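Form P-L/3: holo structure prediction, ligand flavin mononucleotide.
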Amino acid sequence: MRTTEEITAVARAAVQAAVWAPSVHNTQPWSFVVEGEEIALRADSDRKLRIGDPSGREMLVSCGAALMNVRLASRTLGREARVRVLPDPDRPALLATVRLGEPVEADEHTRLLYDQIERRRTHRAGFTDVPVPEPLVEELVHQAKAENARLTPIRSEPAVLVLAALTEAAQEVQSQDRVFTLEVVRWAQPPGSTRAEGVPAGGYPREPRRTRPHFPQRDYAHGHQWGGDADQFAAASTGLVAVLTTPGDSREDWIAAGQALQRLLLHACAHGVRAAFHTQALEASHLREFLRQELLSGEYPQMIMRLGFTLDEGESVRRPVADVLEERRTT
Ligand SMILES: Cc1cc2nc3c(=O)[nH]c(=O)nc-3n(C[C@H](O)[C@H](O)[C@H](O)COP(=O)(O)O)c2cc1C
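OUTPUT (holo model):
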């Protein structure tokens, strides 16, 4: 028996899960409307990075990750999720609708991924020396493929060096650009801040240890002595470098990349593996194009990441669901 209350409870829980998706600088660039059995996911372009992400690619990758959480939550809570991506060309901010359908019993893997949603955290330092087990790497590749994206583990050392060098170059160029820097700083939280968005000071080390090869982090502290204890982030291995790509570069591809990203991150988290992201080079169109042509067989890079085991649990925050959810009565 389907009651209105039951559907409303599932929809609310799905939005509660959605907000725990990763998003660029923790901008949380989304909003949701629940009306009857339908959850609408919209991009909140007031939260788009106008300098770092003018096309909105990273915003849509972030929203795609939130969409994956909605799908996992509705199935785990007993309802089929019928998804339409970009259902209305006249409403470009409407990224997807999810209709809560027939009752279903979620399989074990769906439940496992759902259970990781609030546990998963971005890492911003080195990893331990323990390698990511090969069967797990293969499984992560499979998780991305199931969402129409490709995760390519970068095995060749020269290719890893190229990626590290491009990240370093992009980070250096961005840090010398005042307007770019101001935008990053806007999304960095000073210690003790109660803001429920942006990157908290405890989410990265005060004095980062270099990994070899080194993938620089974003400069969220910007000259301040912010950041968690160095001991807490003491591991110094680069980990496994991997790139998530899509065959095209349309808005659909970006949303697909976000769903693939979240699916593989949750699977990794269930096996104790975390991810660090380095998307600086993808924000410079010529560097992104270079990577596409020289390293990625013509596929479009959507995320650059390192994967590995950590000693610490990172810190993060989210806005309350009430700030992002509008519930409409059906007439
Ligand atoms: C499209 C995208 C790009 C990102 N780029 C970076 C990055 O370059 N550096 C970084 O440290 N984190 C990056 N992140 C991670 C976000 O900062 C992180 O998801 C956000 O702060 C929320 O924290 P959480 O993932 O721990 O919940 C990115 C996330 C997304 C979805």
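COMMENT: The pocket of flavin mononucleotide is lined by residues 22-26, 58, 61-62, 65, 121-122, 124, 199, 217-218, 277-280, 314, 316 (CB under 6 Å).
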